[in-house]
Write the structure tokens for this entry.
Amino acid sequence: MTWTSDTPPPRAAIRPAVWPRVAIRLSLLALVIFGGLALHLALRLIERPVFGPRRPLSSALTQGVCRLSVAILRLTLRIEGQPVSGRAALVANHSSWLDIFVLNAAIQVCFVSKAEVARWPGIGWLARATGTVFIRRDRREAVQHKDMLETRLRAGDRLLVFPEGTSSDGLRVLPFKTTLFQAFLSDGLRETLQIQPVSVTYLAPDGVDPRALGWWGDMDFGGHLLQVLAMPRAGSVRLVFHPALRVADYPDRKALALACEAAVRAGFGGGGLAGA
């Protein structure tokens, strides 16, 4: 499923005077991402034999790359609440490709993402190298997806899931899908696992369409990236880390998903509208 809006997404022409800014920021972003990717691959050669599936060195590097990327984009990051520690997973609303950078800038996580992301230039390569779990939107593979998530959680990875299943315009929280929550209820996990809901709210710069940082429907990645780079400042993003929920306190995946969705809506600053 891909969420779409009745109103066309904002598209503003980039003025010639702004192109030098775009070029400088794009060059810096490429240097940080691809330089970080090369160093990440080298670190993984050390981590695999020493730490096994854990990623203590490369995860810290990924977080540093994301923090630098957020700074290059001139996006102000505001964090409320305390990111969870210990064995845990996180769930958040999804508005943009920017989510990957801002969330990883705040906490070291491995994302659960749709399989198409693996083919994106730049971000896709970075996602594969940093341990993203890719899933196909196919009900026939639900059991396989559940097993993959269980394996990573048992190995100690902190996974972050976008239960809406798609991104939106940043002005709403879409209903949470419950399928992936089943992995959290597996025997041996549900007794100790915590789930932390996270609300992600973007605020576009003054005078700019409030949906400018959202990325949805058939919007192309390259065009949206250039639009963000062209802004003098990309605005701000507010992350609210809610108190973690004990999985053992919920009887099934639907109850757990509803509790997480309610928490995310409560901390969302865009109105928390339900969308289709």
Remarks:
- Confidence is low (pLDDT under 50) at residues 271-276.
- The longest helix spans residues 19-51.
- The two ends are 10 Å apart (CA to CA).
